[in-house]
Amino acid sequence: MTTEFVAQKAASAAANLHEAGLADLVDIRIGDAMATLVRDVPHPIDLILLDASKGLYLDILRLLEPALRQGGLVVSDRADLDGGDGGRASAYLDYLSNPANGYRMAAITTEALGQRFAHDVAVRA
Ligand SMILES: C[S@@+](CC[C@H](N)C(=O)[O-])C[C@H]1O[C@@H](n2cnc3c(N)ncnc32)[C@H](O)[C@@H]1O
Question: Which DSSP string do the residues of 46-75 spell out, in sequence order?
Fold first, then answer.
């Protein structure tokens, strides 16, 4: 299951999946993640990959968390970029790094085109 706000981008993703022969494996939901991810959530979830508005990461995680299995992974792209999110991305990182919330977290960095990118990987304990 994946979701995308912009219909044209969702169509490109669908075309790429079709070309790769994987179209029947992916449920693409067009619209705001906070609306598209509330119904028919697969259970259990093995992996949540967050790469959208950084300020929504915590809300999306909390939405999907009930279905995330023990040992399941949460991988997020560039949650360090708080931008105009008013601290909501750092609230996401605080949530994952608080052991009381049941995750073990590691921060990793990748490099491409001369730039460094921060990612966070958390395992549900
Ligand atoms: C940084 S791009 C990454 C897209 C894709 N993962 C990729 O690598 O090509 C972030 C995407 O999240 C989408 N997005 C942002 N907020 C969203 C929301 N609330 N619901 C659904 N999609 C959203 C944007 O339209 C954009 O296509």
Answer: EEEEE-S-GGGHHHHHHHHGGGEEEEEEEE
